[in-house]
Write a structure and sequence with these properties.
heterodimer, A: 258 residues, alpha+beta, Ubiquitin-like (UB roll), Fumarate Reductase Iron-sulfur Protein, Chain B, domain 2, 6-stranded mixed β-sheet, B: 312 residues, alpha/beta, 4-stranded parallel β-sheet, 14 helices, 42% helix
Chain lengths: 258, 312
């Protein structure tokens, strides 16, 4: 690695000043760039002049649009990252993988007949899984992808939903799978089934929705609508808040809305 | 000997009754089976070409994981899982090149993060875990004499036809379980339960296996021949070890009846259902509701008749 430092101007509210930034080499799709060492892969690519129209979404590690593969010079292994989350490493060779083809099964979640065979009926290719574990190694979210595919094969929908919960659907496992699976699609189907067919219904929510439908809060809302901005702000700022670590028996002084 | 239990995928789906009655029977024998953690599919078939070694990865990981969890042996009830795991185990013990390639691959099974503490290093696997079929385990760890003594319900008069299927028998030199031409293990087991074991010539035939997917009519013909033969030799029921044999022999019977109104239906039972029944399990714990041909009426006369000793 050959790094260099460059002086930069520091702009702050109090005073102007100067500092130094270390630049490190990275290789984007084979081409070498010197980029500040503390940038994320995504910002480093932008620093180098790339403009993202695809392969970039939330910039917060949630949307899964910026799946990236890279290699380091001293290892044979393929590394993975979300470009918006991982800081550049000197001498990394990288490429973003903004999209990988995957065929979603068509289903109406409410009308599905749910049993051990449901996932396999919609994605029969899950039986091609040979348990090589490449998917688990390719997951930037550290999800046990192979284990949830194993659970999918034996029809354990709740287990798939639980294990795959952190999936952002970046598609890196799909790109790397030798059995041509589309793991995240199987997983999101399992989570949807879990949510709509398996998880217990929240009774209190249904009761509250019913109360709203019955017009129980109509008068209170109309009262609020009549207030002007100053009064609304006062009400909002002065509202009674639940303490940070409330006593389990904590109740608001005014419980007329409960 | 500390044994882990590998149910296999089918036993969590269409063959739940096999899994549940396995646990039930072992508990009635005063023991218990613990499932190994986070298991994957066994691979379902053994790779038949020398170069296709990717299909050995799952088995190697499973067997190593079993060893590392402190078990001496892995017990399966599904003959497909048994065959696949046992054959992979032999390959890992005897084929140096494949053993090296599997271990090299699996040593890097996990990708280590900067912030993770390294897990224990991979210890090369070379076939240390014994792979046992449930029938072998019962014979060797309990003994057929013990289940004979432990039986609380006399199954005398129940005419059972043991059906081996293919996966327990061949390749015989690798599985080393029974003489493939004249096996006796299943007969000895059923005899110990007190049943009247029927000898019939088709007991080591193939049920049609996976042809039930690609060419169901061929599987139906194969299964029909087995059932007719068992029936002609006086069997009340055909007993199997394998979920696929069960599927072909049981689920196709409606179809057989449609094709031939003279066809007489024969209830199919898993060997563990019969074992649990003999050990005193009530009928409603045997998972009989998953059967197409209901064995209920046949088994009703063989339920517990010792008052005050009905297990929960």
């Amino acid at each position: 690695m050959v790094s260099q430092t460059i002086p930069v101007e520091v702009i702050s509210e109090k005073s102007g000043g100067s500092a130094e930034v270390t630049l490190v080499p990275i290789h984007v799709m084979g081409r070498r760039y010197m980029v500040p060492s503390d940038l994320t892969i995504m910002k480093a690519m932008e620093y180098a002049g790339y403009q993202f129209t695809r392969g970039c979404g939330c910039r917060g590690g949630i949307c899964g649009a910026c799946g990236t593969v890279y290699r380091l010079p001293d290892s044979h292994r393929v590394e993975v990252a979300l470009a918006c989350q991982e800081i550049v490493k000197p001498d990394m060779f990288l490429s973003q993988l903004p999209f990988f083809p995957q065929n979603k099964a068509v289903y109406c979640i409410e009308e599905l007949d749910v049993d051990e065979g449901t996932l396999a009926a919609l994605y029969p290719e899950i039986f091609k899984c040979i348990g090589c574990g490449t998917c688990t190694r390719s997951c930037p979210q550290d999800i046990e992808v192979m284990d949830y595919m194993a659970a999918a094969i034996r029809g354990d929908i709740a287990r798939v939903a639980e294990l795959s919960f952190d999936c952002v659907m970046c598609g890196l496992c799909i790109a790397r799978c030798p059995a041509e699976e589309a793991q995240p699609l199987v997983a999101i189907l399992a989570r949807r089934i879990y949510g709509s067919h398996i998880a217990p219904r929240a009774q209190h929510l249904q009761e509250r929705v019913q109360q709203i439908d019955d017009g129980r809060f109509e008068d209170d809302l109309n009262e609020l609508m009549k207030k002007d901005l100053v009064e609304l702000k006062e009400l909002y700022v002065g509202r009674e808040k639940e303490p940070d670590m409330p006593d389990p028996n904590w109740r608001p002084t005014d419980s007329s809305y409960l | 000997m500390k044994v882990g239990y590998y149910p296999g995928c089918t036993l969590k789906g269409s063959a739940k009754a096999l899994d549940e009655t396995t646990h039930l029977a072992v508990e009635l024998l005063g023991s218990s089976l613990t499932e190994i953690e986070d298991w994957t599919c066994c691979g379902a078939t053994t790779p038949l070409t020398e170069t296709r070694i990717a299909n050995l990865i799952a088995q190697t990981r499973l067997l190593a994981k079993t060893r590392d969890a402190g078990y001496d042996a892995l017990v399966t009830t599904c003959p497909f899982c048994f065959s696949t795991l046992k054959r992979a185990n032999l390959t890992l013990a005897n084929d140096e090149l494949k053993r090296r390639r599997m271990n090299t691959y699996l040593a890097e099974d996990r990708r280590l993060r900067d912030y993770e503490t390294p897990p224990p290093a991979w210890v090369d696997y070379s076939g240390e875990t014994r792979v046992l079929h449930m029938l072998e385990w019962i014979r060797d760890d309990f003994g057929f004499q013990v289940i004979s003594t432990a039986a609380r319900v006399s199954l005398k008069g129940l005419k059972v036809a043991p059906f081996y299927g293919c996966q327990l028998l061949r390749p015989a030199d690798e599985l080393a379980m029974c003489d493939p031409e004249n096996p006796v293990l299943f007969e000895e087991f059923l005899g110990a339960l007190g049943t009247d074991v029927i000898d019939f010539p088709n007991r080591i035939d193939c049920c049609g296996s996976y042809l039930s997917v690609a060419r169901p009519e061929a599987a139906l013909r194969a299964s029909c021949k087995i059932l007719d033969s068992a029936r002609m030799h006086g069997a009340d029921t055909v007993v199997v070890t394998c979920p696929l044999c069960f599927y072909n022999l049981d689920y196709f019977q409606d179809e057989m009846l449609r094709g031939n109104p003279e066809f007489k239906q024969v209830p199919i039972l898993y060997f563990t259902q019969l074992l649990a029944l003999a050990l005193g399990a009530p009928l409603d714990k045997l998972g009989l509701d998953s059967h197409k041909v209901d064995p209920g009426p046949l088994l009703e006369r063989f339920t517990v008749n010792v008052p005050g000793e009905v297990p929960a």
